[in-house]
Amino acid sequence: MQLRAEAIILAVRPHGENGAIVRAMTGDAGMLAGYVRGGRSRQHRPILQPGNVVLGEWRARTAEQLPALTLELLHSRAPMFREPLPAAAFEWATALTAAVLPEGQAYPAIHTALCGMLDAIEAAPAARGWGVALVRYELLLLAALGFGLDLERCAATGGTDGLAFVSPKSGAAVSRGAALGYEARLLPLPDFVRVGGVAEWADILDGLKLTGHFLERDLLHGRAVEILAARQRLIERINRAVA
């Protein structure tokens, strides 16, 4: 195997005395892992930051072997990690992507969406726009991996008007009328999720509550607790920003 491609750093795990196993997302080859010699050194630490854009070169003698990976930094997002809210968003988005995507399978739409969302966070760390993009990114991940939600019509009536909730069991939309008396058992469906547009932080938090339920149930069940802890840190920091 030999591949040279631009990629987004997703996750870094120490390996051996001074090395690191790095997972990075490419546009054409999907997520790839590689061993970076000296990956825990001072020289590599600024490069191996989740969210950074690198030029990677993966080399392996056989398909079964973990490739050796060398990296050249193309764009650093490290300054964003000095700010709690964008740092939490970067940490969650990259950790989630690394945890749920299979290696070596191309997901160009996910790569494009991840690039766009990270760019939006970097351009306006305190703005609400990237929160909308994050909810949409999580919905895209669910759909791409076979767990898409059915938000086009009411599961009870078949109608398309007044959709305001989602069934936590089926992932199907429910209209306000059909939900009467059962609202507490359902998940909120903010308007921006279906029709687009801007959203307030309260709506974004409702959107994250919606996607979080299905991510935890369908994609992250039984996974490392630190991944969900990263999401909880993000929610807490959004709540602080709103307060």
**Distinct helical segment count:** 6
Supply Rg. Answer: 19 Å
Question: What's the pLDDT, averaged over the residues?
Answer: 93
Low-confidence stretches: none
Shape descriptor reads elongated
Distance between the termini: 51 Å
Number of strands: 8
In N-to-C order, the SSE pattern is EEEEEHHHEEEHHH
User: What is the percent of helical residues?
Assistant: 25-40%
Strand content: 15-25%
By helix and strand content, what is the structural category? alpha+beta
Biggest β-sheet: strands ordered side by side in the sheet: 3-2-1-4-5
Task: Give the structure's gist in a few sentences.
By secondary structure, the chain is an alpha+beta fold. It has helices spanning 84-100, 108-123, 129-144, 191-195, 201-219, 225-242; strands at 2-15, 19-26, 30-36, 53-59, 68-75, 163-166, 173-175, 187-188.
